[in-house]
Structures are given as C-alpha cells and as structure tokens.
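Progress note, sequence design subtask.
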C-alpha cells in the first residue's frame, strides 16, 4: 500500500535524480539500489499525481511539474535537516553552520580563520569540511553547506558570491637552471583554469604527471625541482625563502578565492566571516 505522506528519503531521492540526470547516478549519491530509486520516484509521482521525470537511454530529465517541485523538495529537506541538527545540539549552542573550503585554502587561510569565527560566536556549532570546487558547489546547491570558500564558484539562484581577495596563477620553478619545458608539471587547480592556460600557452608539455594535491603540489615542486602554475598567495612564503622562483615573461591567470553562501544565512554572521577571511588574506599577501 502506498503511503499518503511523503517522506524525506523520497525528497532526497528526487533531488539526487534531478541533480545527476540519472536514476543510476542518484542511486550512487544516496547509497541505494537503482530499483529502490525507481520505486521511490514511482511512489512519489503517484502521491503527487504528476509525472516528475522523463526517462530515456541517456538518463532522466525533469518534466515541467518536476521543475516546479524542486524548490519545494529542497525546502522540505532543509527544514528537516535543520530541525534534526538543532535537536542534537547541546543547550549552549543556538544554531549550526556548515562550512566548506577548497583543499588549498585550508592550511594558511581557513584553519586560523575557523578559530577566529569560533571565538567570535561561541554559541554557534561549526561543521567544517574540505573538498574540490565541484563538490562544494554541488553541496551548496543541495543545501548540504551554508557557506563555502573556493576558487571556482558557480552562480546559482539562492547563492550569493563575493570575492574575498585578489590572487593569480603564476609559473614558478624550483630549478632556475632548467628551461621550464624540461621540468614542467601539470597541476590541476580546476578544469576551467587548465583550459585557459592551454589557450594562453598552446599545448603545454606532456609532463606525464598531473598533480591534484592542492597546496601539497608546491611541496612536490620544491622536492623534485619541478615547475608549474600555482596561486601566488600559496607560493609567497617559498618565493621569499628562495625555494621557488617566479618565471618572468610568462602569462598569469586570475585565480581569486570567493566566498559563496546561502542567501538565507544571517547577514551579520556572513559579514563577520567574510571580513575575517579578508583579513587573513591581506596578512598572507602583505
């Protein structure tokens, strides 16, 4: 017998299918079998009296009714998660803020920043996580994060975006005696920046090595005498120490960090968070 009431799992399943464009993709995201996803969507459509997806060999796409239902499903999941989180909080905390940051931003910026925010708001519980820009953008869209700091933001309805500092990708080397083409290493900061660099420099040397290690990529360059494009802010301490040198007459690429947050967040708290992050960035680049 089909329940007359919609459950949160059905809403999560619907949103996962809407986001991935595939029932199989949804099953992987919510850790359920494809048959479970199919059954939940079938029951949800029966309950709502509307077809939510059109399925074909390529996956699934939302019907007009499905598109209209997305915002409602998101609101249901958000309210449920907020309610559960508040019930689980010790009495000394009044709310929870979920914070995400790109891996490269945690060591020098977000770790000390996090302590500053904790000191400023002792009655807020903070949940912090690291991830790639794609993961963080998706988590904001699906309301699994309240605020995120990343290099490659995606503009979406309900998400506000603000640059927190200016930075750029510069080419550095740990061995000035070599031509950069001989010790070049591809460092993956984002798909967009890789395409832009290829557009500026043409086909880059086939290094046979690609690093997706965030700030640890700089350690690799120093240890192996390598050369690559890195954010100037991250490279600044090593440049001052003479362990890395900037290669002159090479193009640079804007690569500034941004804060992205849900528009429903408390404006005063957001303002304090962003200003504190800017102070940290200014200290690093000063």
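Output:
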């Amino acid at each position: 017998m089909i329940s007359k009431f919609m459950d949160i799992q059905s809403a999560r399943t619907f949103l996962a299918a809407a986001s991935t464009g595939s029932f199989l993709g949804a099953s992987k995201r919510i850790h359920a079998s494809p048959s479970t996803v199919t059954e939940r969507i079938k029951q949800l459509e029966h309950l709502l009296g509307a077809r939510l997806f059109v399925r074909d060999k390529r996956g699934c796409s939302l019907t007009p009714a499905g598109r209209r239902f997305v915002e409602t499903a998101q609101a249901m999941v958000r309210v449920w998660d907020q309610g559960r989180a508040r019930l689980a909080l010790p009495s000394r905390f009044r709310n929870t803020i979920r914070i995400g940051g790109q891996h490269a931003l945690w060591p020098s910026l977000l770790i000390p920043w996090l302590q500053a925010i904790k000191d400023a708001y002792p009655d807020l519980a903070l949940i912090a996580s690291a991830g790639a820009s794609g993961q963080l953008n998706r988590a904001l869209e699906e309301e699994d994060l309240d605020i995120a700091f990343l290099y490659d933001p995606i503009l979406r309805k309900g998400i506000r975006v603000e640059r927190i500092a200016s930075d750029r990708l510069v080419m550095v080397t740990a061995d000035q005696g070599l031509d950069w083409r001989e010790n070049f290493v591809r460092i993956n900061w984002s798909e967009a920046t890789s395409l832009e660099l290829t557009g500026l420099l043409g086909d880059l040397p086939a290094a046979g090595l690609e690093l997706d290690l965030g700030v640890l990529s700089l350690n690799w360059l120093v240890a192996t005498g390598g050369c690559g494009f890195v954010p100037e802010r991250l490279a600044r301490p090593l440049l001052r120490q003479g362990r890395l040198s900037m290669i002159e007459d090479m193009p640079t690429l804007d690569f500034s960090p941004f804060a992205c947050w849900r528009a429903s967040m408390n404006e005063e708290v957001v303002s304090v968070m962003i200003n504190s992050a800017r102070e940290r960035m200014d200290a690093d680049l000063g």
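Residues 58 and 105 are 37 Å apart (CA to CA). Work on this subtask will continue into the next period as scheduled.
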